[in-house]
């Protein structure tokens, strides 16, 4: 886990230096805050349009699908924040396997939720199917006249 974070930090630092040198070569004097403003702004909009397109397709399937992806994304952030906190405070080991097993726990519980949800839908479908077939077998012989 520690090595993964160091690799990510190193890649971000290299990109930071490249963008800073490129901006200086074009005659722009930018501060670190300026770089964050522009890079995160553009990156955020790119991610927004990409994710918006995906969620638009997913919304045709089910709101549960969108909720799952959002929850999973938030959990990834929380899991890594916990691992980083463990490294900073020295309480527990900072390991990628801890993060992965935590996410597996969510996937298992979510799978159980989906199983129960499908079981309920199947039960309701069978009940409604049974009711409609009974109505077809025994049509009403007499209809009440509406009183005026």
Q: Could you explain the architecture of this structure?
A:
The protein has four helices and no strands. By secondary structure, the chain is mainly α.
Number of helices: 4
Find the structural class using helix and strand composition.
mainly alpha
Helix content: over 70%
Q: Look at the structure and give the mean pLDDT.
A: 84
Between the first and last Cα atoms, what is the distance in angstroms?
A: 79 Å
- Report on the biggest sheet: none
Radius of gyration: 28 Å
Query: What is the general shape?
Result: elongated
β-sheet strand percentage: under 5%
What's the β-strand tally? 0
Which stretches are low in confidence, meaning pLDDT under 50 for 5 or more residues running? none
How would you concisely characterize the structure shown here?
With 148 residues, this protein is an all-alpha fold.
């Amino acid at each position: 886990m520690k090595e993964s974070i160091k690799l990510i930090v190193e890649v971000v630092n290299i990109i930071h230096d490249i963008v800073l040198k490129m901006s200086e070569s074009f005659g722009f004097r930018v501060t670190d805050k300026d770089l964050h403003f522009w890079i995160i702004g553009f990156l955020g909009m790119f991610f927004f349009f990409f994710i918006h397109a995906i969620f638009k397709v997913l919304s045709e399937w089910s709101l549960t699908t969108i909720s799952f992806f959002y929850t999973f994304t938030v959990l990834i952030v929380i899991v890594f924040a916990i691992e980083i906190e463990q490294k900073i405070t020295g309480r527990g080991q900072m390991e990628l396997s801890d993060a992965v097993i935590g996410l597996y726990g969510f996937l298992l519980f979510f799978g159980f939720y989906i199983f129960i949800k499908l079981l309920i839908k199947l039960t309701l479908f069978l009940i409604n199917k049974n009711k409609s077939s009974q109505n077809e077998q025994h049509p009403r012989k007499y209809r009440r006249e509406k009183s005026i």
